[in-house]
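# step 3/5: fold
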Amino acid sequence: SRVVGPMGVGLQSGFYESSLVRVHATGSATVYSGTAPHGQGLDTAFAQIGPALGDDVLRDQAEAFGFNRPLSIPLPVVPSVYPPDLNAPETAQSAIGQFDVRATVTQMAMVGAGVANGGSVMRPYLVAEEQAPDLSSLSITEPDQLSRATSPEVASELTDMMVGVVTNGTGANAAIPGVSVAGKTGTAQDGGRPPH
């Protein structure tokens, strides 16, 4: 089994368990190894984790990564959305990025970069430096932390799992010889296989 957490949340009833996952009272979750066929995603496990943790916990975590937040780079960016007031089936779908979850490319780059950056999500920017006609510097954009989405320990665990997706799972096409690549596929949207 593999610990996914701690997420820093509690469950009302102590824990939730199925053949795929156990969500502990501490808010951490264990996804049982070998629960998905080789190369398959674990959407079923995460669809079970979602309602066990609850809509508010998932929304808080999404917002820690920048969802539901206006952003400019300095051009305005359409906000990514984690929907409000979900029932249990909608929460299960949202836990795997479905239902009414909407994410921009910028948002998903921020999520991936936040995980790679030890859980610290940085404010993205388009212009690194403004220069005068004589090439002297008028302003330089300094790195700015937008939020602390996870602890460094959780970010490290997520990175390990994402590397596993590329080395042993659905992200094998992203592999680069001699380079450790972390990835996450969108298998629920894969139109090339049944039932899609």
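# step 4/5: annotate
Strands lie at 2-4, 16-17, 21-23, 29-31, 71-72, 76-77, 120-122, 129-131, 137-140, 145-148.
# step 5/5: archive (pending)
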